[in-house]
Amino acid sequence: MKKMHKALTVAAVSMLMLTVLTGCGSAKKGSEDTIKIGANLEMTGSSASYGKSAQNGIRLAIEDANAKGGVLGKKLEVVIADNKSEAAEAANAMQKLVAQDKVVAVIGPNLSSLSIATTSITTGSKVMAISPMGTNPSITVDKDGKTKDFMFRACFIDPFQGTVMATFAKDELQVKNVALLIDNSSDYAKGLAQFFKEAFIKTGGTIVAEESYLQKDTDFKATLTKIKAQNPDMIYIPGYYQEVGMIIKQAREMGINVPMTGGDTWDSAKLPEIAGKAALDNSYFSSLYSPDDDSQVNKDFVTAYQKAYGEKPDVFAALNYDATLLVINAIKTAEGTDTVKIKDAMASTKDFNGVSGNVTFNEQHNPVKSAVIIEYKDGVQVFKTKINP
Predict the structure, then answer these.
(1) Lower CB count within 10 Å: N or C terminus of the chain?
(2) Taking every annotated instance into account, which residue ranges of this chain make up the domain Leucine-binding protein (predicted)?
(3) Which pLDDT band holds residue 371 (cuts at 50, 70, 90)?
(4) How far is 161 from 164, CA to CA, in rounded Å?
């Protein structure tokens, strides 16, 4: 997932950070009795709901590892830096983590554009980062198709996610005419909309309307009026929960009762609060994870998470938990804190059994994973189906 903010500022910050970090190399990091792992999270700003869940998942994994004796005879310490849900701040947070806090690896950011903004820093410092929820292909691959050595992800990529919802729309919802409502300030939303559109058209479907909005918009009635006039069978909204909640609420108030669908950025406890529980009925989104998955590793995770935090984990908690376990596994495999060896160990990961499924990294540092479709019933998320790659 991603948001595009202050592109020129990010470029300037990235160039500065690259200059500062060149030559940092792969020095061993951490004190004699601790190993520091960084977390570059959306703790404040427009996506703060994601950051809270992410922090919970990371801390649960760290606490469990420490309770079992730590790693390589040392305790793990997580250092959290707030990226404020903005790309420029994500670059600042990454620079702090690698240059000041001396972490051996970084979990996050979760948003795609924020992860992309940190690439020059991870490259210059030779410290790997894994984005738990960044689905844009450009996180791990540059414009020339070359894999970025120090960038990984724990989730599927947007082309697969777009195809998943297109398949579900055709086969399960049996819709033929779809309207798109896209966050035009988000490369994540624009990219996912394009992947869905291409896949849906291939199934024989038709896009009858294509409208847009901007982040922090609050009144969508004029746009929804245009969409309603085209009489779509379904509306696809690949945006973030804040605006999505208001869009669905206003659409239902206008008598638009067709299925509402979207991507993994819908997965927030705040969405039912914003949209209203009843308004979310007949709504579906694609996701990487469901707490209702019946694997034993997930059952154990859900039990531990509920005991620690008093609620079921969402996808951000689960994927950040998995990302942390992947980093811990890479440190163990590297048999030390040399950051290049940790990166190489991560790249060689095969058949890692996580709560969101098995992970084997391909040559582009992407895991090949299943997707799930989540349905809202009276404001509660319910597992609908799983779609394999």
Answers:
(1) C
(2) 34-378
(3) confident
(4) 5
Structure tokens at 335: 């048999």
Q: What is the chain's length?
A: 389
Q: Which of 284, 301, 293 is nearest to 381 (CA)?
A: 284
Structure tokens at 23: 């030559």
Inter-residue contact 139 to 115 (CB < 8 Å) = yes
Q: What is the per-residue pLDDT for 73?
A: 94
pLDDT tens digits, residue range 63-85? Answer: 999 999 999 999 999 999 999 99
Buried b (16+ CB within 10 A) or exposed e, 286-323: bbbbbbebeeeebeebbebbeeebeeebbbbbbbbbbb
Global pTM value: 0.75
